[in-house]
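explain this:

___
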Amino acid sequence: MAKGGILQIEIRDRYVDIVVPLVPENLEGNVKKFYAFQSGGKLPVEFIVGNGGVELIYERYRLRKVSSLP
């Protein structure tokens, strides 16, 4: 989701409801690099664009786009 020109990750479940802004670092090539601020440091975030679609690497998670939103 982009809000006001800033890409964000929204994480919601029964325990957490947070919005993480992503700051662009390098948008060249098939790996788009961003970072998020966490615990006073920079946490790398990557979008990998390939023939099979788009994957998001955030913390220990690898998320794959499998369909469009309704």
